[in-house]
Amino acid sequence: MLKQPQTKYRAFAPIALPDRTWPDAVLTRAPIWLSTDLRDGNQALVEPMDLARKMRMFEMLVKIGFKEIEVGFPAASQVEYDFVRKLIDEGRIPDDVTIQVMTPAREELIARTVESLSGARRAIVHIYNAVAPAWREVVFGMSVAQVMQLVERSVTQLRRLTDAQPQTEWVLQYSPETFSLAELEVSAQACETAVAAWGAGRPIILNLPTTVENATPNVFADQIEWMSRRFFDRPHVVLSVHPHNDRGTGTAAAELALMAGARRVEGCLFGNGERTGNLDVVNVALNLYTQGVSPELDFSHIDEIRATVEHCNQLPVHPRHPYAGDLVYTSFSGSHQDAIKKAFAARREGDVWQVPYLPIDPKDLGRNYEAVIRVNSQSGKGGMAYLLESEYGIEMPRRLQIEFSQVVQRVMDVEGKELTAADLWQIFNHEYRIEGARGLQQRRLQERVGTDGGEGRVTLRGEVAWDGASRVIEGEGNGPIDAFTQALSAATGHDIRVIDYHQHAIGAGADARSIAYLELRVDDSQTLFGVGIDSDTIAAAHKAIISGVQRARARGAGRPAQGAQSQVATA
C-alpha cells in the first residue's frame, strides 16, 4: 500500500447542498421493493441458475411478498429468454406482481427484450447506459451530447415497440448507470431526456444506482435529495435507488437515500451481486421492522428463505450475516449471556422488545431461543445456567452457578470446544452425583415427628450404604433435613452443616420431580453444593446432602472433584 495514497486516489467532491433536509427525516413506511436476485444477482454467479432454480427463486420471492421482480436479461442468453416466456406462457405471474427485464441501450437488444414480454399483463422494461466521465469518455468515447442522443434514440424505440402491444401495461425504467460517479447535471439531463422521449404523464421509474460506491453514504443521500428536488412535482415519476456495496455501506446508502426522497429500492436477498454485492434487501427490510415499521415483506421463516437462496445461488450465507446468519443471535461472552438471561427472566408477554444484544426477537423470524446462548471458553456462569434452565429446568442459585462454572471451565480447558446443553447436563449430572451415586446411599429411612416431648422435632432412623458396607444412622433435628444431617454427621464422622437451601419442581403433573440445591459446610474446611432430584421433596433434599458429602470426601481425599474431565467426548 502507498504511504501517501493521495498521490493516486482522490476523495469524491461533496455535494453543494447546504439546505439539505434528509438528516431530519424519519422512515415511517416501507419503500417499493424490487428484487434483482434473478437478474443482477444471477449474473454475479459463477454458475448462473438453470430454469428450475430460477423458478424456485421466483416462487419464493412471490411468497415473501415482492410485487416487482426483475426476472432476467432476456436478450443476454436463451435461458434468460426462455425463463421470461415460461413465466408468461404458463401463467406463473400473480396478478399483483409485475415483472421487470433489463436491456442495455442497444437497438437489437431492446427489440429482443420487448419480444420476450409479448402477452404479459404488465411489464417494466429497464434501459440503462453509463453517464459518468470515465465510462463515456474512456470506455465508449462519447461526448455528453452523444450520450443524450443515445438515451433519446433508445427510449423512442422502446415506446414505438411497446405502443404496438397495447394489451400490456408498459412502464419504463431508465437508469443513468454510474450515477454515483457522474456530474449531477449530466445525470439529470439524461433522466429528463428519457422522460421526454417516453412521453409526458406516462409512468416512468428513474433508477439511480451506486454502480460503484465511491463516497460515504451521506454524499449519496445529498445526490438523491438533489435529484428528488428536480423531479418531486411529477407524480408519474418514481425515484428509485440501486445501491452496491463496494465500500461496505450499501445498507446505509439505501436508508439515507430513502430519507432523501427515494421511494423505491432495488436489491438482492442477503446482498448477492457483482463484486462485493448489491444492497441486502433483508437487511434494510428488517431494520425497518425493528423500528416498528412494517416492511410489507414476510421473513417469518428466515432459515427456509436462506436455504433456498443458498441452493439457488450455490453460495453460502455468512454465519454472521445480519438477521439470517447461524450465529447472529448467539452469545458466547459471559457478560452478554448474563444480560440476556436477566432480560428474558424479566420480560412479560406483550412488553416492548428490550433484550440486550438482541435487536430483534428471533421468534419473529422463525428462529427459537436454543442458539441464543452457547457455551465455549469465553462464556460465563449466566450462559451455562441459561442452557440448563431452558433445556432441563435446572434453576441454579447464584452461588451454585459460580461453583459450577468453575467445573465447566476446567472441562473447557481440556476439551477446548463448544459445549451443548446436553454436554452441560452430563457434566452437571456427573459432578453432583445425580444419577448412579457412589459410596454413600440412603436406605430404609424412617421418620417420627414430635417424639420424646420435643414438639415439632423429628427423629430419623435407618440404614445407609457406606462404601459397600451397611450402617445404621440415627439423628434428631428441627425438621427432616436437619435430622438427616445430624444422623449422617454421626455415621460418617463428618461435621455437616446446611448453609442454604433451594428447591423447586421440574416438570408438571404426574411426571413432576423435585430438585434440591443445598449449600453445605463440611468439617469447617469446605463449603460446597450438593444437588438431589426425586419425586419426593424430602428425598430430593436428602440426596442433595449425600451429593455434597460425596463431593467433600472426594476433595478431602486429595482427589479432584469428580467433574467430567472427559465426559464431553461421550455426550
Structural account:
By secondary structure, this protein is α/β, with parallel strands linked by helices. The chain folds into three domains: 28-313, Aldolase class I (TIM Barrel, Alpha-Beta Barrel), CATH 3.20.20.70; 334-431, Orthogonal Bundle (Arc Repressor Mutant); 440-567, Double Stranded RNA Binding Domain (2-Layer Sandwich). It has helices spanning 40-43, 51-64, 78-89, 107-116, 133-139, 144-163, 184-198, 217-231, 250-259, 281-289, 302-313, 334-346, 381-392, 398-415, 421-431, 480-492, 537-556; strands at residues 32-35, 68-72, 98-104, 122-130, 169-177, 204-210, 237-243, 264-267, 440-449, 458-466, 469-477, 496-506, 513-522, 526-534. The chain has an eight-stranded parallel barrel, surrounded by seven helices. Strand 3 (98-104), helix 4 (107-116) and strand 4 form a beta-alpha-beta unit. 41% of the residues are buried.
Strand content: 15-25%
The first-level CATH class of the largest domain is given as Alpha Beta
Give a quick account of the main beta sheet: strands, pairing sense, barrel closure: 8 strands, parallel, barrel
Radius of gyration: 35 Å
CATH superfamily caption of the largest domain: Aldolase class I
Helical amount: 25-40%
Mean pLDDT, all residues: 88
Shape: elongated
Number of domains: 3
Number of strands: 14
CATH architecture of the largest domain: Alpha-Beta Barrel
Q: Give the N-terminus to C-terminus distance in angstroms.
A: 50 Å
Spatial order of strands in the largest sheet = 1-2-3-4-5-6-7-8
Low-confidence stretches: 558-571
Structural class: alpha/beta
Total helix count? Answer: 17
